[in-house]
Design a protein that fits this description.
The protein is α/β, with parallel strands linked by helices and 315 residues long. The chain has 10 helices and 14 strands. The structure holds ligand A2R and guanosine-5'-diphosphate-alpha-D-mannose.
Amino acid sequence: MKRALIIGAAGFVGSYLIDHIQKHCVWSIVVTKMPQETMECPGVDICDLDILAPEAIERLLEEQRPDYIFHLAAQSSVAVSWKNPGLTVDVNVKGSLNVLDAVRKLDYKPRVLLIGSGEEYGHVRENEVPVQEDNVLRPGNIYAATKACQNMIGAIYAQAYGMDVMMVRAFNHVGPNQSPIFVVADFCKQTAEIEAGLKEPVIKVGNLSARRDFSDVRDVVRAYVELMEKGKAGETYNVGSGNAVEIRKILDMILCRSKKEIRVEVEPSRMRPVDVPVIEADISKLKTCTGWEQKITLEETIQDTLEYWRQKLKE
Ligand code: A2R
Ligand code: GDD
């Protein structure tokens, strides 16, 4: 039986990836979380790991000897990366390097999937949309730069040491249980709070003109597993929907699902120093490699996320 290790499993994507593997793969699962995080997951071995401690990663890998490693651990927010660039660089660059270097020291070659970001493309030119994997990277923020760096280091380790490392560039993925530091969860949470009478009927927003490529997290983890099984070492794969949607439209889709009259107000602190206008994925490489297709529409995801926040506020 294959053994899968998920590093950084206590975050948003981790629980969906565990769920998908448990339902669809005959793999045993070991996951890591930060020491201060809590996690309950029947049938899964749970270990504490801070990827800034290289010896701890080496010990864990020697003990667990996984066949597949999904590296999810990160400082995952663009907004936070403006406020805490040092932490973002430490975790996303040094931490990922620590993981790769620990893998390099093993006496066998597990498959590694590094999760990067559509943000790596950054300032994409009009004639480059939808953006392909070999496009020039012009990151527009610290988070994007760290993920571009992770991608480059991953490709170097694959080439230089013959390691079985693949890279993903995941575009915006959303769904129930995401932190409300991200736009869809934030707007749904605010709407649910207004409906519950916990907040005046004003929704606070940032830049509504940006266009981003949104997918349901459940479709995204399916793509990760497909790539783990079928992807090619040293390659990078876009994972997205292939369609960029204006944030204003996302807001409209949420507001039109509410019976409340809600006013929209731009909050200057939600605006970023730079917010690239459009990021849209070309997903033909992923489709050709795995046969993956999107199954869940954006409307369904938004409905599920809004419902999640309505229920959560009742708890
Ligand atoms: O920061 P925390 O305590 O929430 O923990 C996060 C964890 N993490 C770490 N794990 C090990 N060592 C570290 N030094 C370290 N720093 C942070 O990684 C959290 O539990 C997990 C990341 O989860 P989320 O922030 O919820 O990200 P999500 O949405 O699950 O994204 C997965 C991947 C990331 O690489 C994103 O950059 C990419 O997909 O979009
Ligand atoms: N968070 C937030 N809050 N974003 C807002 C708001 C708001 O009130 N109003 C407008 N936005 C805009 C942001 O300026 C950005 O253009 C877009 O909504 C999406 O922002 P986020 O949801 O915070 O995500 P992100 O695009 O910065 O990053 C996410 O997607 C990346 C892949 O493209 C994260 O999931 C990253 O981890 C991921 O790599």
